[in-house]
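Bug #77: duplicate submission created two jobs. Keeping one. Sequence:
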Amino acid sequence: MILKREILALLIGLYIFSALFNLGRMYFQHEEPRRAIIALEMNYTRNYVVPHVLGRPYFKKPPLHNIVVAAFFKILGSNEFAARLVSVLSMFGIAFLIYLVSKDIIGFEASVFAAFSFGLSIIAYFQYGRLAETDMFFSFLLFASMVCIFKNRIILGSFFTALALLTKGFPALHYFYLTLFFYLLINEQIKRIFSKEIFIGGFLIVFLFLGWLLFVSKGNIHRFNYALGFLINASGSRVLSITHFGSAVVHFLKFPVNFLIHFLPSSMFLLFFANKYFRDGFVELIRSNSEIKKLFKFSLAAFIPNFLIYAIVPDGRIRYTLVLFAIFSFFVGIVYYQLEYDNLFDFKRLFKFLFVVAIVVSLIAFVFNISFSKSGWLMPNIFAFVLSLIGFILTGRMFKNCCADVIVLMVLFVVSFKFLYDSTYMSHLYTYYTNYREKGRQAAEIILQHHPDYVMSNGGNLRFFFYLERDLGMQIHPIKSNKNGIVVSKNGNILKKIFAKIELPDHIYYIGEK
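Kept job's structure:
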């Protein structure tokens, strides 16, 4: 079977629909409310240079991701969907770049498979591609910068590196420069490290980064050092986590396994290397095809040194290597290219196995979350899941035992799993967690009854404070002794008069005047 463009269009449509499905439903979690509050306060104050959280400067990360989220808030409203859409579009952008870079090297089908390998991976599709956090947007900029090295566009790559540096700080530099150094080394072009374009690119990075710091400091050297020190500390703390040799060894051994788990389902294709015939064919392909060899060498140069940094450091987390999943997709694209010729797939057996897994997990999930049947969201979830499952079954009946079937099967299976994940586990979390939207709305209504000009707080649960600040329509400030206004605090003793209290799982928040 040749993968027809009409079928591919349907697969992409289903994939996009599933990625956006229920995107704005869940309350903000983990670091999401911090990113959203910074973006919200940027729009309130029109200060897009210095990030603030509840009126306090926040320098652990530069502001670019927050600026983009703030722009989406302006267009789509200050809500979860708008904040998370930045990550979703970044995930789509990475997948599209994988396809563009590899299509003329490994062909149409293999490049499509490589793009879906990243787009459907656990870490992208089920985790950071749906969160309003910095990681996916940062990885998009990093991947663009690294691809520019492969395309010999060093100055453009330096520009993307500068943007990545303004998104998440100094890790952007090691990803770009280690990839550049080892790619030149592996191609025996190490003298190019002193070329004019690399110096111009380096100057561009320094110019843009220092330019932001100068805007932040407004000429005050202490404020400059304060912002720079926070960024250095945030990056350096990961390296300083090496305190026990034993824990470092354990982390080093577990890290590759964890990486492959997060790259499922495409990491299963590495099992073909257990076949000697396939191994020999793969080695011969790399040796005989100069373009594939070039892509393979680039993937090694980009992947190995950067991966080792986070594998060696005990505090290295898989999400820090998110961009390397995109790099690894080139490798599995080459694997697919080889499989097109070896014809080693037993499609029917693979289909039966995955179908049984889908049915068993579906039954377990729905029994586990039986109370969710009372929710009004049950029917759209079931409808979407059944649609994908019908397509999944039709795939097994229509197609023969050939390579392109695997792309269709993989997309339909993982998309079906995604709908199942949304309709059970994520829906369970939605009903399990405190309704922070409602708590924030209640607090905002109480405060607005007193027509405040100035609202203050000494901080707390950022999920609660995002919804409170959004519904207030104004920035919340730190508590100041010389300022009068409404106060929201966990400490009721600092209030002269208490209007109300809001009970949350972590604390009771008192609303009143100090």
